[in-house]
Write a structure and sequence with these properties.
globular; binds pyridoxal-5'-phosphate; 420 residues; three-stranded mixed sheet; Aspartate Aminotransferase, domain 1; seven-stranded mixed sheet; 2 domains
Length: 420
């Protein structure tokens, strides 16, 4: 084995190739510059200027859908949590890493979701990375919508690596015919001897469109497949009381408009880092059998610490507020309808949907980035998304509404858009 070290650290392959990647990103206008916020998340935020001062801008790019990220009760619950439990257990959950506030939060989530049980993680990314490799076994097939979130894609990839013999499939976005074809091919595949799983986002974050859960359920039943929904953008937004896309489709047990004939979703993943408090954290929700398997066998469960107690306590309070104040969900719906109407009247094309995501299509990636830069100068904080996050030619400004926005905020945003 050679013991000769490179003469300088910059000769190391990592250094040279990383400098290349970063230079290419800068050159292609895709380099991400992190904006520093100097105060809490709200309908407006304080952004740090290059000279170190801060200025207030209207925030149109947070997932703070119900305005709970800085709600006094949510903040207070977090403070009480850290006072009562300290910073954490310094342990993974199955050893001595589970506080009773985790149990409380998991009961609250199950009640809110209308499921038998739930189990939390430090993020929804981790929840997805835990779920697929834990639930799938060799001979199973995981069939996923092509526009599913990156953490679903990676979770499925990980399952196929960890459990050799797990079969992967992708169907065209929200296309039931394409899914049927995949299911037929999967059933005919001799390598598929176990469970078939169909996986979809509830709300798709780039388009703001939603999955047709009753139709997916029916199709799954035809092929004896189980249905998993990541509803990170649906919680707090969809359904009369904000329980999610399953409530929107009358598939949420415990909700007033539940229709048992439509069937249920088998498992959910979701985040606590958007409408439900906005701190961090994720969960799976579904049968007790599934969460027990996660406790026993999930690698992120067995080898990684729990959600910090302060976050568990504030998320628990945020969900209590959603259940107590469904009028927040209606306020979000009203302000979103107003925004769509005003933006369209100003001559922009907004993708229509029942969600709080309002993508304004501008086409070219460089144009989307230039527009978001100009909007920031005009006091509106909104991000431009381009290729490869969205398809080539479909670059967009993604405006996300919050129940905390007022019509004055929307009018100011539309004024700025007109100036473009
Ligand atoms: C659909 C979906 N799932 C999961 C996540 C990840 O959530 P978290 O931030 O809790 O890891 C996101 C975040 O953008 C998301 O949009």
């Amino acid at each position: 084995m050679s013991t000769t070290a490179p003469s300088t650290t910059s000769a190391r392959p990592f250094n040279a190739r990383t400098d290349d990647i970063l230079a290419q990103l800068e050159h292609g206008g895709q380099y991400k510059h992190l904006q520093m916020l100097t105060g809490p998340m709200g309908p407006t935020v304080m952004l740090r200027k290059p000279n170190g001062d801060s200025r207030e801008v209207i925030c149109m790019c947070s997932n703070n859908y119900l305005g709970l990220a800085n709600h006094p009760e949510v903040v207070e619950a977090g403070i009480e949590g850290i006072r009562k439990y300290g910073a954490g257990t310094a342990s993974v959950r199955f050893i001595c890493g589970t506080f009773d506030c985790h149990e409380t939060l998991e009961r609250t989530i199950a009640k809110y979701m209308g499921t038998e049980s739930s189990y939390t993680f430090v993020s929804c990314w981790t929840a997805n990375e835990a779920l697929y490799p834990t639930f799938a076994e060799p001979g199973d097939a995981l069939i996923s919508d092509e526009l599913n979130h990156a953490c679903i894609i990676d979770g499925i990839r990980l399952a196929a690596v960890i459990k050799k013999g797990v079969v992967k499939g992708v169907y065209k976005h929200n296309d039931l015919d394409s899914l049927r074809e995949k299911l037929e091919a999967t059933r005919a595949n001799p390598d598929v001897t176990g469970q078939i799983w169909v996986v979809t986002d509830g709300v798709f974050s780039m388009e703001g469109d939603i999955a047709d859960l009753p139709a997916l359920r029916k199709l799954c039943d035809e092929f004896d497949a189980m249905l998993i929904v990541d509803d990170s953008h649906g919680h707090g937004v969809m359904g009369t009381t904000g329980r999610g896309t399953h409530e929107h489709w009358n598939m949420c047990p415990g909700a007033a408009d539940y229709d048992a004939s439509r069937g249920e979703v088998d498992f959910f993943t979701g985040t606590l880092g958007k409408a439900l408090g906005g701190g961090a954290g994720g969960f799976i929700a579904g049968s007790k059998r599934g969460t027990e398997l996660m406790v026993q066998r999930g690698r992120p469960t067995l080898f990684s610490n729990a959600l910090p107690a302060t976050v568990a306590c504030s998320a628990n309070t945020a969900i209590q507020i959603v259940m107590r104040e469904p009028q927040r969900v209606q306020a979000l719906r009203d302000i979103t309808a107003y925004a769509r109407q005003q933006i369209t009247a100003a001559g922009f094309e907004v993708i229509d949907s029942p969600t709080a995501i309002c993508p304004i299509i501008v086409g070219d990636t460089a144009k989307a980035i230039a527009m978001s830069k100009r909007l920031l100068e005009l006091g509106v904080f909104v991000i431009g998304f381009g290729y490869p996050v969205v398809p080539e030619g479909a670059a967009r400004l993604r405006l996300q509404m919050s129940a905390a926005h007022t019509t004055e905020h929307v009018d100011a945003v539309v004024d700025a858009l007109r100036k473009l």
